[in-house]
Amino acid sequence: MNLASDKEPAGSLDEMGVRQGGLSGFLNYWLRSWRVTFLVLIGLAIFGTWTAVTLPRESTPEVEIPVAVVVTAYPGASARDVEELVTKPIEERLTNLEGLDNLTSSSRLGISSVVVEFSANEDLKDAIRRLKEEVDSIRGLPEAAERSEVMEISISDEPIISVSLGGIEDERLLSLYADNLAKKIEEIPDVSSVDIAGSINEEVRIRIEPKRLADLGLSIGQLMSAVRTANINAPFGQLETDKYNYDLRLTGRFNGIGDVAQIPVALPDGTVAPLGTIAEVDLVLTERESQSRMSRGGEESTPAVSLSVRKKTGGNIVRIVDEVKQKIEEEKGELHSDIQVELFADRAEDIRTQLNNVYSSGVQTLLIVFGLLWLFLGWGPGLITALSVPLTFAISFLVFAQTNTTLNGISLFSLILSMGMLVDNAIVVVEGICGHQDEIATKSSEGLVLRDRDSKELKEKKIQARSAEMVDKFTKPLIGGTMTTVAAFFPMLLVTGIIGQFLKVIPIVLSATLISSLFVSLAFLPPVAVKVLGRRSEDEGQERWFDRQFDKFRNWYANIIGRILEAKRFQALFITVLAVLLVFGLSLPFSGLLHTGLFPAVDIDFMFINIEREPGTKLEETLATVERVENIIRGVPEVRSYVANIGSGISLDFGSGSSGEEVASLYVNLEDERERSSLDITNELRENFKQITDAQVTVEELTAGPPSAPPVEMRIIGDDMNELDRLSGLVMEEMDQVDGVIDIDRDLTNSAGEFNFSLDQEALTAMGLGVSDVAQTLRASVFGTEVTTFLDQSNEEVRVSMAAFDQAVNSIDDVLAMPILSMARQSTMGEATAVTLGQVAKVDLASSVDAIRHRDGKRTVTITADADKGFTPNELTLEITKKVEAMGLPDGYSVEFGGEQQETVETFNQLYRSMVIAILLILLILVIEFNSFRQTFIIFLSIPLALIGVLFGLLFFQGQLNFAAFIGLVSLTGIVVNNAILLVDRMNSMREKGATIIEAVKEAANSRLRPILLTTLTTVGGIVPLIWVDEFFRDMAVTLVTGLSFSTLLTLVLIPILYYRQQSRLERKKNQASNAVEHGKGNAVQLSPVP
């Protein structure tokens, strides 16, 4: 929908109507040099197609998350010790870090994780560099704490496909096959890593009896030192000779378990004994921290090993996954015949499905657009106009390659969205060339009427001259009209953060496409029209039945407008009704009739289930709960397969899932052909999982768009963990009373407790012991510790660990009775003497939490929940806020709300800003074009007309005023004004030619009805198929279709009314001023003296 001005451009035409020089001269060069034009078109088609085929494909744009994590291990330390000794010093150092936005942390047993979130406008690479420098400068951490590691968080870290091997009970055999397959997959280009879950490996275990070691006068540290010393492969210098320099290397690597058992150990009495005579050395299976089980076709689950494949940043997901599948097929011949292979979380398949849906929608759009063009313009002009679509897309794909834009759901949606708009420029140009617009028949073209008796060459010359005239006539107005549409999308580039990165594809694609369509319409289509229409007589198009019927319709419409302009009461009533509709529509989001949100849940072919039991629960107990969940899942007929991972959870945001023996997760594949949606199945499972009372079982739903926070999130901030525990429990009880709140959870869990050992420093000193001696003995005896590693004959790394016999430590009394060798007593009394831990330490049992979390340095407990079907996070957050305020909080404790509600507010605020900027740009263009605030205001009223259609359209189609719908609303600001521009521009032109106001309005209504309806129908027809693509595109498409349709229909009535009233008022004022002048002149005559 573009402005078509009637003002003649400056300059003159040559003998065939081709203007020389300037922009028109450049555009008409393509018209004169049609051979060059056709070669360029062929080149664009070839290179554009090649570029489209080779562009990377993904489901959504890859975004850069401004987040990093500082991880510090402090083995054996409790959550409170980690908080005080590690986390707090790191937080204090990072508080003043440049560019810091948020600082959160988690302190748990033996590990500190500090999450650093930078401001959205920070350069991530530079920010990570500054963070590493700050972390490296931290001093004062415990000696036992390991070096802090800075890790950048990336969406690329998410698995792109998971492969599960199962079907047999031999878990060791499964592990061997999985390890081999993982190595093959890691060889694929752009694969960053392959994680293995449920695998069982072998290790050399040195089992010790602490009391026997004490009797022999050996400490655990001496034994560990003997093992490490015997397994060495390191350089120790260089030998210089007369002629050469030789490197010196000491090699003593183990080759197998026999070498470990034969390690010589020096005893205090001067003798040497093999390690195998002092401790038991065995090749055992590693202790399991996780386990996997798989089921297919409703069968009982069997042991499994799962591989999670991750890609490098920028890697082509579809290509990588295809190569992974190829590797699997190649390796199937080496697998045991009963081993089954199942794929999960296949993102390439999701991408193909989504892109195929968009492709299908694109084909439907193209057919709809071409059908409308044929209906309004005929075969020849319709084909020429439709040619602008592939040509524009070819140029757009070249822009994609230069801007690193991938083929994803958002970019393809933008292309389809532009398809209905990009033909608008072509419609105006081709319709002008074909003579469908009566108003373009100027004096210069009256002699260029085509006749059947004209030769082909003469016809081409006449069409070339007419084409040149149309290019001259429409260049500036088409540029202005295109810029108003581009101005609506351009401010979206100003949106920051993850949403901004996700969103920027839309303005890039649409701007590139619309500007390309402008160039194609003005430069490439006229030469094509000359060749295609050279054999077509002018009378052919005028005799079409549709043209005759449409002429009757537009004459009827012009007459109706004329009657409306004479009915002032109807005008007032019409304007009043529109105002009432606008006010009522604006109240819909506040009344709750029209829901709001950020991203809609999507119907997909898989789902995630998380299970969490009490901290400290053994793996076997968690497995029992998983089996109950499995029984429920197998009762759902739509389930095709599933894999259960016991020991790890799944997180749908950019954080990692929880881990531990008390957690588990299931990945469930659904049948492709099913009657129920995944959302309906999810609701059924939630109800059935309520019968499991010994664990928290939640079903995770994916939402469209980039990673986002939980639907409902509330943070309670305070100092005392016990009070935070109590308050969060009360809040969860209140939340449970709110309808629509489901899957309530918190990140605070009380562990089984902790034994605190207080060492007697005087006793330690007297006995010649240090804290490190006690810690080393306890860690090896109670937990077990890795001593060294070696490569076996298969070049596989084998771990060597040391631990006490299982029966040696079964209670706290066994720990207190643990002997610790006193080196001081050995030297003074002539023999090694051991003391027990109970002699140098006191023990207390205290309550403990699994993890202590901070936000900006303060202790925080976060409560999250999901929204049930039919409820939005915003309305649930409001209800919860009321209950918390009524409950009241003690002094020193506060509540913050986050989650999707906060993200929605922040995102919408940025989109509001973008829309305001877009409106200002459009107003600026309109004021420049019309040089009138009043007429600019009349045209601007098209936007609230569109808003009426959007609000009632979303209500009718049961949609949401969410992120996608708001994007559609911002887009409408630059689209809907073009109908009003066409009408007002024509009215002004007729007024300049001397027409009365009513004549100008009626003529504009008659002559502009065809381009207004055609451009609106092509835009709407191009978007309609997107309503059925998926949930994300649906609300955006509904917004554009209903807003543009409603605005167009009302614009055809309201704009003539407003223009008529405005011009009539001006004319009355002008007449009054003229009468006043005449009256003044008359008075002056009367007062003149009579000669």
Structure notes:
With 1091 residues, this protein is of the alpha+beta class. The chain has five domains: 1-58 and 349-543, Multidrug efflux transporter AcrB transmembrane fold (Up-down Bundle), CATH 1.20.1640; 66-153, Multidrug efflux transporter AcrB pore domain (Alpha-Beta Plaits, 2-Layer Sandwich), CATH 3.30.70.1430; 202-236 and 251-285 and 754-846, Multidrug efflux transporter AcrB TolC docking domain, DN and DC subdomains, CATH 3.30.2090.10; 545-593 and 932-1080, Multidrug efflux transporter AcrB transmembrane fold (Up-down Bundle); 603-702, Multidrug efflux transporter AcrB pore domain (Alpha-Beta Plaits, 2-Layer Sandwich), CATH 3.30.70.1430. Helix content is 54%, strand content 18%. The protein is built from 36 helices and 30 strands. A hairpin with a 5-residue loop joins β13 and β14 (302-311). It is elongated and about 130 Å long. The chain starts with 21 loop residues before the first helix and ends with a helix. The model is unreliable at 1-11, 436-453, 537-542, 652-656 and 1085-1091 (pLDDT under 50).
